[in-house]
Design goal:
4 domains; Beta-Lactamase; Helix Hairpins; alpha+beta; rod-shaped; 579 residues
Amino acid sequence: MATQPQAHAWFAPSPLESGFGDIDDPLTGPGEFERLWRGFMTARVTLGLVLLLLQGGLWGLNQSSNSSLIFVCGGYFAATLGVRLFARPRRMRRNFDPQWIFTIGVDVVAFTALQFLQGSNINYAPLLALPVLLAAVLGSLALALGTAASVTLLLLAYSAWLTGQAPGDTAAYFAQSALTGAGCFVIAFLSNQLSTRLVNEEQRSKRSQLAVQVQRQVNELVIESLTDGILVVDAQGLVRAANPAARHLLGSGLSQRDASFNLGSETGWAPLAELARASFTRVDLRRTDLTILHPGQGLRRLRARTRLTGTLDTQSESLCVMFLQDQREMEARTRTDKLASMGRMSAAVAHEIRNPLAAIAQANALLEEDITDPKHRQLTQMVAQNANRLGKIVDEVLNISRVQTRDSGAVAQSLALRESVERIWRDWSQQTSSQHLISVTLLSPEIQVAFEAEHLRRLLINLLDNALRYASGQSGSIQIEVRPSEAGQGVLGVWSDGLPLEPSVEQHLFEPFFSSESRSSGLGLYICRELCEGHGASIIYQRTQRPVGGTDIAGNEFFVTFRTARAGDRVQARQAAAV
């Protein structure tokens, strides 16, 4: 009947095999067995030296006249020393092999010879327990029992020899030999069982350690690859561990810092430190939205939830585990889900509206040619204005479709940021007659950025239209700045002295079809963000102060950070332009 395979943990090694294993088994060593083998061999050498010195002392004191004992001890010491120095540690087989002969066999012969040749009252029979113990620990149970049997037979033979030499109470001789032999069997069995138990326990321990190590490596790999940030914080605000996603979310050059850091070392991390302190006062799950703002960097909104680790005893320390999520990524996933269905529907509706709308505009234009009544002309102008407004909304909806389906394999254009911005804002200011409102700061050096010229024009015009809509109308109420960032990237800033945005408006600022005005489509800033993400750039909003007429005035500013063009992008762009 076939046996069913045993189920075990995913990351655990195979089930433990019975026996001692092989010397090359990574779980048993060779280290552990070698130390045990060398310990026994060293003990044999030491015993041989002690016996040699003992017999030499007895010979020198005229306590022993049998010189053969010294030769036996000397030969035993030489044999044990040779095995210790030149033999290779390996496990004994189940039968009597050459290794048994040169180790256990030498002990049995030497100790038996000493017992037969003794010329004093010294009893060497207890030394026969050493080869039995050696066979039990370094060999199998069968080998240990065989060694004990051979020792028992030699002791019985010695008792028979004593009976022949001096007839007397032979029962005492044989009883002593039988008891010694029985003790050897007991030593062989118990020693073998104990050594087997210890080896199995050691293997189980090492297999458990291996499973824990593999599990820890898998956990670390999973945590390192998570897109959500994970922080492990103690009660003093010291971060014990942080995965790369958490370091990226915390910002402030954290990737170059030490493995552990304190949340109180940066002012921007104050909300996280406060959340950690609050989590230790309450055991239940805490979830909150917080903001991280470092000087000179953009605003980062996070959603954080915390859990406290359990304590095994009163002396163990509880830790706070923080799970951080970038709200921009969460909103991006939400937008993706919404636009997956809305995009196709909007494009289809826009195409269907475009043709009837063009027919309405054309019919209105023809009708206006034949109308002379001023009231009727006012009505046709209203129709024309609303038709143009609907046409603009249709174009913006179709622009969304074009941006989302932009060819990712197209040649990345390299353009001069300062020159391109200057040309675009001049054309826009002439068309809108707003030259007197704009203040422009174009700092050098010239920076080559990876962005398509037409997309940059649409991006900047959308930002300028948005600024003009909310600006006060005085000189300098709209400001444009082009400067290099600390990392050498190009930064474009468009500022206007408009009123502060409401929190609800700011939260959904870059979402499609969201606007604070009823007559706006709410697609301008969304298209700006899509254009930036399509070229590896980023756009953020901040409330900043700018000098206007010698006074610093707070206003709304949009920052666009461009990706610097590589040399390959410039060459490909020139080749594409040449073609």
